[in-house]
Design goal:
The structure is a homodimer of 288-residue chains. The first copy, chain A, is an alpha/beta fold and 288 residues long. Chain A is built from 11 helices and 5 strands. Chain A has a 5-stranded parallel β-sheet, with helices on both faces. In chain A, strand 2, helix 4 and strand 3 form a beta-alpha-beta unit. In chain A, helix 2 runs parallel beside helix 10. Chains A and B meet through helix 2, helix 3, strand 2, strand 3 and helix 7 of A and helix 2, helix 3, strand 2, strand 3 and helix 7 of B.
């Protein structure tokens, strides 16, 4: 099945996360079962990326959002590896700097949008400005509420310039988040990932869910859809995202560019070189 | 064997490419035979990259140089894929822009050096300024000649700031280049790669070889060695480069960072959350 159908948040409808199952998965039974299929999708992604790069007429922007421990970094490490570092740029957006705060909220993300032929990945994004900014009342409601339109207009402008946009919301349950926090506590090699804010932010769980619902309802558009990825099972998350990226790139149907030279003329240059190499070889043979 | 030994250009010696065999390979017989070993090295690279990123105390700079069709892009697509796009930046340096030409030759490369925790790849590099600049007499000899010291000082400064530097020269024979040009001519999907300059540059082959010899002789240093990779066989090139990168990163012996929080205190927060989740569950159970 095409996971775009399963995961799409349809444009123009009131979306509610609590109607989706974060533990959903399809007929695969687990990581071992799904891995060959994931590997096949990663390979497809790589093939399409080379075509995108050669064609240099369009670009791809992948946006990742999700609560702490939802797996954004995991996707970057294990799914986006299908897309190599050549012509791919991952931008991680953390707490804005003083300079960034002195500008409109799109100012810091715009420089990281993909050039023609390339892929850009936003690990967190401009959507933080309708999420953390809303939950922690960093700006008044009137301000974050008008940002939905500003975002839709911005993404529409990118799309008109040749950028295909895929937005993935990694959906985990509150119980799954706690399990992942436990795994960090129990593994000395991963304790550096622990932050006290993991727990203080968790107290705002319901506020975040409401903010996600509104973000998805307002900003899943035909030109930049939100896909809600059931992410309790990391293997299903990886499978769904890799397949959605690969299928989307397949649909883009990239074509090799036309030769910029007269191939007949170049073939003459080539044949002159072959003749020269043969003459040099003969000379070397006689000398030897 | 450790291919660093086979490929190293020793510091402080007069290096000559014509003493090396561009078709060299080791006991493997071909791509099919070597691929499992290449895949294993790519996997090691990925594991070490995650450690480098977590540690955030050091960085890695990989420089690729080689004549047209030597395989720089091939290495970016098929070897550097072992390093994912998260925390890896590939910078390709083409003909300098007017703005770039108005600055010292390191001005355009410096912004692309790797941040702590990350990898940067230069697909062509500041070495173009002692190669094409010399061969085509873009600057007087006195100017390009003093650049060797400027480069060594620059690379020394990067190393002191925590950057490990690996420089790969992809060495192919003149015959092999012609074979690769033929492959471009014969494949309609690759004709867009053909440039008339492929053939005009080939006329300067001996000048380029002399420029490479001098570049390697002057700039293979203990802190930033040049490795000369026999690249007629693409599979051996991929094997040698992936193994050298993986072994170098292994020697860096990255350590997970210390936790920045009091783990005992955090465990209390965790246990409070578990108790709360259990109480909520019981409540839900009674309600249900």
């Amino acid at each position: 099945m095409d996971y775009r159908t399963l995961c799409l948040a349809p444009a123009g409808t009131a979306f509610r996360l609590d109607k989706r199952d974060p533990a959903a998965h399809n007929s695969f039974s687990g990581r071992a079962d799904a891995q060959p299929e994931i590997d096949a999708q990663l390979k497809r992604m790589g093939t399409f990326q080379e075509k995108l790069y050669a064609e240099k007429k369009r670009s791809l922007l992948i946006v990742l959002q999700g609560i702490d421990a939802a797996g954004k970094d995991g996707v970057c490490w294990h799914v986006l590896k299908g897309i190599g570092p050549q012509g791919c740029h991952v931008a991680a957006f953390k707490v804005p700097s003083e300079e960034e705060k002195a500008h409109d909220f799109l100012w810091r993300v715009h420089p990281h949008t993909p050039a023609l032929g390339t892929v850009a990945v936003f690990n967190r994004s401009h959507y933080e400005d309708v999420l953390v900014a809303r939950v922690h009342k960093l700006v008044p409601e009137a301000v974050w509420r008008q940002r939905y339109d500003v975002i839709n207009d911005f993404e529409r402008g990118l799309q008109l310039a040749g950028t295909t946009i895929l937005k993935f919301f990694l959906y985990i349950s509150k119980e799954e988040q706690l399990k992942r926090f436990a795994a960090r506590l129990d593994d000395p090699d991963r304790q550096w990932k622990i932050s006290a804010s993991d727990y203080t932010e968790r107290a705002y769980w319901d506020d975040y869910m409401a903010a996600y619902d509104d973000m998805i309802s307002h900003c899943s558009t035909p030109h930049a859809p939100w896909y809600v990825i059931p992410s309790n099972h990391k293997w299903f998350r990886d499978l769904a995202i890799s397949q959605i990226i690969a299928n989307t790139m397949d649909d883009m149907d990239m074509q090799p560019p036309q030769a910029t030279v007269d191939v007949v003329e170049i073939r003459k240059l080539y044949e002159a070189e072959v003749a020269k190499a043969a003459a040099d070889g003969e000379k070397a043979g006689k000398a030897g």
